[in-house]
Amino acid sequence: MIRVLIADDEPMIRAGIRAVLATDPDITVVAEAGDGHQAVELVHRHRPRVAVLDIRMPGTGGIEAAREIHRTAPATGVIMLTTFGEDDYILQALGGGAMGFLIKSGEPEELIAGVRAVADGAAYLSPKVAARVVAHLASGGAGALADRRTAARARVDALTGREREVLALLGGGLSNGRIARRLHVVEGTVKAHVSSILARLGVENRAAAAVVAHEAGLLPPSAPEQR
């Protein structure tokens, strides 16, 4: 059973998230919070596997809460809920330890897929979020976009062939276990590859590595299984 905490300052949004998650028998919502401070307290009390946080809340916002959860309760993976126009916040959250990013207006299936992926230790960027992040990073215009894509491809080309395979699957939202099964290797081997990928790309976490994969146009050969 995947235990989930929901944090959003709008009760109707929380109710909607709870209703979507209730359609999956393997997911249970154990707590709800109206702001980031309360979310951190409830994470410590209930120890959920996943915390779904609105990126902007009054008082302590989602980014600050994500950083504190990552620091004090690292076993809880954080998914950030965002809307269009919050690209700067997404970039801040990437550096704060968040593992997943979803658009509030996205499909309900994406929420369930994201929760399952993060519960399994994977990074999850909805396609819309990935596209927004890449576009925002290259907001200087077409030339900047081309430059960033070229730089990302150069970083990816410096990886070994196997590391590129792993990065593509990581960017597609697969956990180490699922990557291992896809590539027919042991999970420890994948873990070593991921550590090497993060170091060689110069990024701190899987979500940031997934952004590089999307920038480089490196995609898995088929859509990842989420179950």
UniProtKB/TrEMBL annotation:
InterPro entries (UniProt xref): CheY-like_superfamily, NreC/VraR/RcsB-like_REC, Sig_transdc_resp-reg_C-effctor, Sig_transdc_resp-reg_receiver, Tscrpt_reg_LuxR_C, WalR-like
Domain Response regulatory: 3-119
Pfam families per the UniProt record, alphabetical: GerE (PF00196), Response_reg (PF00072)
Keywords, comma-separated and alphabetical: DNA-binding, Phosphoprotein, Transcription, Transcription regulation
Entry keyword Hydrolase: no
Domain HTH luxR-type: 152-217
Family matches, as SMART domains: HTH_LUXR, REC
Residues with PTM 4-aspartylphosphate: 54
Protein name: Response regulator transcription factor
Membrane listed as a keyword: no
